[in-house]
Request: fold
Amino acid sequence: MKKINRVLRLQQSRLIMFGLLFIFSIVLLMSCAKKKIEEEYLEAKKSIADSVYMKKGNSIVSLTFDTLRSSLLSAISTHGMDGAIAFCHEKAYPLTTTFDDSVVIRRTSLRIRNSNNNPDSLELLILKEMEELVQSAKMPAEKIVRHPATGEIHFFKPILLQAMCLNCHGAPGSQIQNATLVKIKQLYPEDQAVNFKEGDLRGVWHIVFNAEKNRHSH
Ligand code: HEC
Reply:
């Protein structure tokens, strides 16, 4: 009788042990699954947010670019190429900066004309990355870079040189007429934005969302 009792107790405690182990592993599994779901959710949320900013960035660029291009074309037709330089000088910079308090719109390049467009360290990194792609005949894509500490979201879009741009960014003397060149040199003595070829990376659009105030005051 005593022996039977001992065996029973042993079986009972084994049963309890297995039971506990079973419950423990279920809880562990559940928390793993929950963590995975949470991770997937965060990942999905991030990529949704990225695509929203991608869309926002693209529409700001096309709005700004369309405004710039149509005003540039009408300036060229009324004032000629050299007259249009003055337009770019007076209008392009303000056009690309004013939009909304928390949104900064910039154009920058590895070879700049206006020193206000000098690239900062992040812009330089992106420009070099895109330049490498273009050099190896690959198409650079738009890009989102997040800055978790400040909450800033940066949208970058490559600017490739088109035929009509050669009038002011191509080869001096042949593609850029002398009168135009004189005007450019006069307004931008330090100009580096010449000798581009069609298809070259001319620069990038850089849109900053949730921009910290006075970030680009340089
Ligand atoms: C009529 C002459 C003219 C034409 C045509 C022209 N640009 Fe420019 N571009 C300028 C001037 C002037 C500036 C400097 C504007 C400023 O003061 O912000 C400039 C500045 C830029 C910048 C800003 C970076 C920097 O170097 O300061 C980019 C990018 C640019 N141009 C790209 C283009 C592209 C792409 C085209 C063709 C679609 C084009 N431009 C056509 C005259 C021209």
